[in-house]
Design goal:
It is a single chain. By secondary structure, this protein is an alpha/beta fold. It has 8 helices and 9 strands. The strands form 2 sheets. The protein has a 6-stranded mixed sheet with strand order 5-6-7-3-8-9, with helices on both faces. It has a 3-stranded antiparallel sheet with strand order 2-1-4, covered by helices on one side. Strand 1 and strand 2 form a beta hairpin. The longest helix has 16 residues. It is globular.
Amino acid sequence: MTATALQVVGLSVAYDGAPVVLDVDLYVPPGVILGIVGPNGAGKSSLLKAVLGVLQPLAGQVRIFGQPLGDQWSRVAYVPQRSGVDWDFPTTVFDLVLMGTYGQLGWFQRPKAKEREQTLNALRMVEMDEFADRQIGELSGGQQQRVFLARALVQNVDLYLMDEPFAGVDATTERTIIALLHELRRQGKTIVVVHHDLSTVTEYFDHVALLNRELIATGPVATTFVSEHLEATYGGPVRGTTAESNSQSPSSSHGSSDD
C-alpha cells in the first residue's frame, strides 16, 4: 500500500521574485481529508497550484501516490476557487460537468450515453440535476460551487485538491459539500482542502497542515490543531477555535483570499 497519497519535498514558490512558499515538506496519507490552514497571504493556494504544476516551483519535488504528477494525472481532480472562474463563459451546467469525463475518453472520442449518465448522477449527488440546462452565469455562488464539485466527482479519481470550496457559499451548500467529502473519504479517497474558517477545522478534517509560507505543523487534527501551533502560524493568540486551551468566542474570521 502506498504510504502517501501526496508527497511534497522541499517545495518553494515565488511571485515576481518574492517567496510565497518556503521549503515545505508535506506528506498526506491516503484516505484522509486534510485542511491547509493559515492566514491571508500564507501561500495556501500557491502551494496547491505548485502541486498541480500550474505554478512552476523554484525548488522541490511533488509525488502523487509515489509517482510524478505527469504519470498520475488520471488520479487527480482539482476544484478551483470560484472567484477565479469566468462565469460568463457560454456553457450549461450539464456541459460543464460533462467536461469532467473527457479524461476517461481516448483521443477524438465524444461522450456517449455512459458519460452522460455519469454526469447526471454527479449532478444528483450535489442536488443540481434540476439545473442541468441552466447557463452557469445564472447560478448563485453556492450553486456554482456545487457544479464544480460535481465536475470533480464525475472524474472518479483517488485524490481531490480543492481551493476554498466553502468560500462564499450558503449554509445548505456547505453542509452538502462536507457530507460529500466525508462520503469520498469512506470510499478511500484522499481530499486536500485549502480552508480559512478555523471554527470548523475539527469538524470537517481529520488531518491539518498549518502554513504561513513555511509549514508550521502537520498531522492529525487532534494533536496538530492546538494553541501552540496556531499561535506560531498566526503570530499570536487565536480565538474562536476548539483548539486545545482555547475555548473563547471568535475575535476574527480570518477571511479567505487568493492565498
